[in-house]
Amino acid sequence: MRKWGVAASFSTIFGLIICSHLDFFVVLAYMGTFVILAGMVYDH
Amino acid sequence: MTPAKLKRIIPRLHTPALWIFLISSSVALFDALYLSPSDYLHGDLVRILYVHVPAAWFAVGIYTIMGVCSFISLVLRAPFYSICAQSLAVPGCILTVICMVTGALWGKPAWGTWWVWDARLTSVVVLFFLYIGYINFCDGALNKAASILNVVGLINVPIIKWSVDWWFTLHQPSSFFLTQKPAIASEMLVPLVLMAIAFLCWCFAVFARLFSINMERFQRIHHA
Q: How many CB atoms lie within 10 A of CB A5?
């Protein structure tokens, strides 16, 4: 349950970033940041 | 609150902090990417600052808290504070990397360069090396060399804070002051504060997890 909840939350986060259709640099900055934050949450 | 009490409470706060991070970051992202207005000069590029600025705040803030913990652990020889500092080092270092990378992604289109050796950027690189040095020296509780490096490195904190006032830098001066109103529009202040709350919860969630791992390792070594 917890695993699916976290996965759904991160899907929402990445969905929000991708669907924003903003400048490449903005999407790259947000994607990079949240991939690192998600990676740390997943790792621990 | 005593260290013995905190030892029991901190690991229990991991899951609530994680959920608050997930919810607040979704709300913050929606505000930062969809609701907040574009800047009149930089357009949508200004949205990078909603992750860059909180990352910078917490990178410096965590280092300062680590320095205080290291100082107390050196004076009192209390492993609890040393373990707190160790558990904060990794999230602090990651936020420093996020701060530098998002700063470079802002710098290329806004300044025309990924990097300049100005006082603010250089002092943040020094902070990054201080984190790397600290993590490298860590080999268990009461690691004296790491704690001394951490305390000595505190001298870099005011340099980072006031570098934009003391020297002429390409990096803009601070928009937040202790005694005055922030020099930023309220529509832009809201996503910034929401993102800061999300980053704070992420820091606490990772810290709580690392704290329980480090404390367990310490107790295993010392009770073996």
A: 12
